[in-house]
Design a protein that fits this description.
This protein has twelve helices and 16 strands. Bound molecules: pyridoxal-5'-phosphate.
Length: 378
């Protein structure tokens, strides 16, 4: 059993990514509205997800913020967000003076549970943020139906789900708006930070585009002049970032295939271990496997997931507890401490994300699987 193997890290930039960045720098147009490096990347993102509009922005969190702002979320409003997600799904709700209402997730997909959402909808609900967590598709059929019935728009947080699809359709077009992250650890990156808002609604696209750059836009009847129609932000993506993002996006299919191959390999190698539950791929969906998340069932004399994680890290396998703190249990959301969301609370003690990114080969995955088997069955 090899224990001194060094696992490659993610992300991995190619020569094309680096040349694209250099070319964008040499063009001497670094930001600029209407910059073709940025608009070409936006067109590629929109085409890839099968939506009409993509607006590139500075981060995934900015994308969530702008999507919520485009829906006029503000003080007095509630926004339903799963508690089992990265904080960037929820913090923008508070930027706008609204209140996140945390919902539970399903035990198998770890995505928003429609029954939990149903119980939390009120007159004040202004939006529902659905997260395709780890690249697993959320139940958009049920969640969109709930939104439509209540007249509440749905935002897809697909920060972890470039490559995910439902019934052959890529995610991003199921909600009213969708949010992409291009942070360095995500499926693809625009060179460290980046994001995008996707939508089929031209009014939302125009509003997001305007809010991205200080709320400024043309004045009717005053050609050549712009002013701020409303207070916006500086959430622009630079041309260097867009160039890297576009170069990476061209390899999205290859990277997705590698992620799925690695996931299938781990599933094959980790089968039949008592108390170890492997990730599910809901019927009729494609899981992007941004993270390969396993559940360590408590009992059976097994160590708890946190202990197994520590053991694995000491043996050179960089596993992560897959959200050890549900959002409603973190100090930032202290006023939500009293809420009970039993599935997410339980999962927070049981889930581990194993290394599975496209930079890993079978020899690395063998090492991961061997060490996981040893730690879980110890
Ligand atoms: C990464 C992430 C975000 C935020 O994206 P950044 O680009 O890091 O700001 C939002 N939601 C989810 C689910 C994420 O994983």
């Amino acid at each position: 059993m090899s224990s001194s193997i060094e696992l490659p890290r993610w992300p991995q930039l190619s020569d094309e990514d680096i040349e694209a960045a250099v070319a964008a720098l040499r063009s001497n147009r670094l930001v600029g509205l209407g910059n073709s490096v940025v608009t070409d990347f936006e067109a590629a993102l929109a085409a890839g997800q099968g939506v009409e509009h993509a607006v590139a922005v500075s981060t995934g969190t900015a994308a969530v913020h702008l999507a919520l702002h485009a829906l006029d979320v503000g003080p007095g409003d509630e926004v339903i967000v799963p508690t089992h997600t990265f904080i960037g799904s929820a913090s923008p709700v508070t930027y706008l003076g609204a209140r996140p209402v945390f919902a539970d997730v399903t035990p198998d997909t770890h995505c928003l549970d429609p029954d939990s959402v149903k119980a939390l909808l009120t007159e004040r609900t202004k939006a529902i943020v659905v997260v395709h967590i780890n690249g697993c598709a959320a139940d958009m059929e049920a969640l969109s139906a709930l939104g439509a019935e209540a007249g509440v728009p749905v935002i897809e947080d697909m920060a972890q789900a470039l490559g995910t699809s439902i019934g052959g359709r890529p995610v991003g077009g199921f909600g009213d708006l969708a949010c992409v992250s291009l942070f360095e650890q995500k499926v693809i990156t625009s060179g460290g930070e980046g994001g995008a808002v996707l939508t089929n609604n031209p009014a939302y696209a125009e509003r997001v585009r305007r809010l991205r750059s200080h709320g400024e836009g043309p004045i009717e009847g005053r050609p050549g002049l712009i002013w701020a129609h409303e207070v916006g932000y500086n959430y622009r993506l630079t041309s260097v970032q867009a160039a890297v993002g576009h170069a990476q996006h061209k390899r999205l299919d290859t990277m997705l295939a590698a992620r799925r191959r690695n996931a299938a390999y781990l599933t094959e190698r980790l089968g039949g271990i008592d108390g170890l539950e492997l990730p599910v791929e809901p019927e009729n969906t494609v899981h992007a496997f941004w993270k390969y998340v396993v559940r360590v069932a408590p009992g059976g004399g097994r160590a708890p997931a946190a202990e197994i994680a520590a053991t694995l890290r000491s043996r050179g396998v960089p596993v992560l507890l897959r959200y050890p703190f549900p959002l409603h249990r973190q100090p930032a959301f202290a006023e939500h401490q009293g809420v009970s969301l039993p599935v997410a609370e339980r999962l927070s003690q049981e889930l581990l994300a194993l290394p599975s990114h496209p930079g890993l080969g079978e020899e690395h995955l063998d090492h991961v699987a061997d060490e996981v088997r040893r730690a879980v069955t110890a």
